[in-house]
Write a structure and sequence with these properties.
With 550 residues, the chain is of the alpha/beta class. It is built from 20 helices and 22 strands. The strands form four sheets. The chain has a seven-stranded parallel beta sheet with strand order 7-14-15-16-17-18-19.
Length: 550
């Protein structure tokens, strides 16, 4: 955007024009050539003829030329703070940067001298063992070759970690160690050999591991830079942020107050991970925030009802391959869930419940249905519902409970190949049935769920759009191509549907009079390029409340 446009601010009226404007409004007039704004909001549309008159009258016009202007993208489920902290002082061991265990050991060795603190922490992809050419995680003994004295944690996504001997010793994990009954994200498991000794692999125990992230004095700058790198540069204007720490929330609010937060944040407070329920319900007093609803606000609460597939902890109906007694675990008490749902509804906070496995989704739906939440309460969300749907009864359960399913099409690429590896033949059924869910009138969204070990492309909404349309996995397999959706449906996932799921459909998600002037300008029209070109479309500008933030 020209410098003069930046300096003018958003207080005056302005017209934005481009060769193609996609409003995502079904009743928008034909031939929209420009949008008019006043302050932070859109006031109307302009035709080509009206644009010519406005130009002749000397009105303030920003012309993006032969580009495409459309609503700002919305990522409804992201762990932005986690991702920023994970990248800070962490050795990136993800495939394809590291393709083998030898590559991983080399990267860790190179990072020893520059580590932050006593620990060396490496970051691998989700399903790291499947993506490395060796087809497994590094062993404790292999990690010991990097160092026998420095504790090493190699995080393979967010649910499973490989430790060296020094790390096991530092955590007190030995032959006599007994796992706690529950962790914050699922049932903790220490993998042991035939003699009962820890192998170095642990599951659902990330909250016990050290952080290499920025300290409080570095946090605001790290978040501002990290959010710009993760989201803004890809055209994301609003993020449904799953909270991590109170310090992170305070930093986001402070950045928003100074106009330095490069996205809108709608936070979901993780209970009890970020704070206890009582504190979350009284979040303004707990955090001492200067609440700024236009750029930062708390939208709801986040709970975990089960773990992840990579840790074989998602609660499924059929046992995991090779583990006849393991169908995953529901790590949430019914009374606690009922309390959270009821008390959150009373203060108009939306509850988002992580439920990976179909058994967990069914159980959560039954609990919600039994409560009869008050009219007008925000509809609860079931995170990851729609990723794996082997049985046709799941949408009926969601509908009976009046919940919103929140799938992540990016996971089709990340681990669409691996469901059969973990679940057998039943794992080939119902992988990301997006077209069917659209046909059933569900407001399906796409989100990054960026966390530890996410793919580098995960936060690009057009990568999620590509996943939903191309349905191509990490290894190039085509998964259930009949469930591919159209570009119009795919764009709705990151605009209008996303705004609806966040409860912000009157504020953003489309370009319409009265809504916020949040939009992205792309160098190419996503509706007129080959599907495989979608993720590489350059972002030319990103505007929030009529101000360029790119």
């Amino acid at each position: 955007m020209p410098q003069s446009d930046r300096e003018s601010g958003a207080s005056q009226g302005r017209i934005y024009t481009a060769e193609r404007i996609i409003t995502m409004e079904g009743d928008a007039p034909e031939g929209v050539a420009g949008i008019r704004t006043l302050g932070e909001r859109i006031t109307g549309y302009l035709t080509r003829e009206a644009m010519a008159s406005a130009d002749a009258a000397g009105e303030r016009i920003t012309d993006y030329g032969a580009r495409t202007l459309l609503p700002g993208f919305i990522d409804v489920h992201a762990h932005g703070e986690v991702a920023v902290r994970a990248a800070f002082g962490t050795v990136d061991c993800r495939v394809p940067k590291c393709r083998s265990i030898d590559d991983v050991l080399g990267a860790l060795s190179a990072g020893l001298a520059d580590r932050r603190g006593e620990w060396l922490v490496g970051q691998g992809n989700l399903f790291f063992d499947r993506k490395l050419s060796d087809g497994r995680l590094p062993t404790r003994e292999e990690l010991d070759r990097v160092s026998r004295n420095v504790p090493i944690a190699l995080r393979a996504g967010g649910h499973i970690t490989a430790l060296n001997s020094a790390a096991l010793e530092a955590l007190g994990i030995d032959r006599d160690y007994r796992e706690p009954e529950h962790s914050l994200s699922g049932k903790p498991v220490v993998i042991r050999d035939a003699d009962g000794n820890p192998t170095g692999v642990v599951k659902e125990m990330d909250n016990l591991l050290p952080s290499t992230g920025p300290d409080d004095s570095e946090l605001e700058a790290a978040l501002a830079e990290g959010y710009r790198e993760l989201f803004t540069r890809y055209g994301v204007t609003t993020v449904g942020e799953i909270s991590e720490t109170p310090a992170g929330l305070r930093a986001m609010n402070a950045l928003a107050g100074r106009g330095e937060l490069p996205v809108n944040i709608r936070a979901y407070l993780w209970v009890p991970g970020t704070m206890p329920l009582e504190d979350a319900l009284n979040w303004r007093e707990t955090l001492g925030l200067d609440h700024r609803a236009d750029r930062f606000g708390v939208r709801g609460l986040k709970l975990f009802s089960d773990g992840g597939y990579s840790a074989k902890n998602a609660a499924v109906d059929d046992h995991y391959v090779g583990e006849p007694h393991n169908c995953g675990h529901i790590a949430l008490g019914q009374e606690y869930l009922e309390e959270v749902l009821g008390r959150a509804a009373a203060v108009h906070l939306q509850v988002a419940i992580h439920a990976n496995g179909p058994r967990a989704q069914r159980w959560v739906s039954q609990v919600i249905e039994s409560l009869s939440l008050p009219a007008g309460a925000p509809r609860p969300r079931i995170e990851h519902a729609g990723n794996y749907m082997p049985d046709d009864d799941l949408p009926d359960a969601w509908r009976q409970a009046d919940v919103l399913p929140v799938p992540q099409p990016v996971f089709l690429y990340t681990f669409g190949d691996f469901f059969p590896d973990y679940l057998g033949e039943v794992g080939r059924r119902g992988r990301f049935p997006l077209r069917s869910l659209f046909e059933q009138q569900w407001p399906i969204t796409s989100s990054s769920d960026v966390w530890v070990g996410s793919e580098p492309e995960a936060t690009n909404p057009l990568f999620g759009v590509w996943c939903a349309m191309a349905r191509r996995s990490f290894f190039g397999s085509h998964i259930d191509e009949a469930e591919a959706i159209s570009i119009e449906q795919a764009l709705a996932m990151v605009t209008t549907n996303a705004a609806l799921v966040l409860g912000e459909e009157t504020e953003r998600g489309s370009l319409a009079p009265g809504k916020r002037a949040d939009f992205v300008v792309l160098d190419r029209d996503p509706t007129r390029v080959p599907v495989d070109d979608l993720p590489a479309i350059p972002v030319h500008d990103v505007v929030i409340n009529s101000r360029s933030v790119l």
